[in-house]
Amino acid sequence: MRPVIVLGIATAVLASGCGAQKSGNDADSPSRAQSCSYDSPGTLLPALKHGFGDETSVHIDMKMDAAGQKVAVAGDMEMTQKDTAMTLKSTGASEFAMIAVDGRLFMSQSASTPKYIEIKADNPASAALRQQLDSANLRTTFKAFDAGLTKVKPSGATTIDGTSVCEYLLTVDARKAARAQGQTQLPASMPKTVEYHLFLDGDDHMRRMKFDLGPVSMVMNMTHWDEPVDISVPKIG
Question: Which of 8, 15, 136, 168 is 20 to 30 A from 180, alpha carbon to alpha carbon?
Answer without folding.
Answer: 168
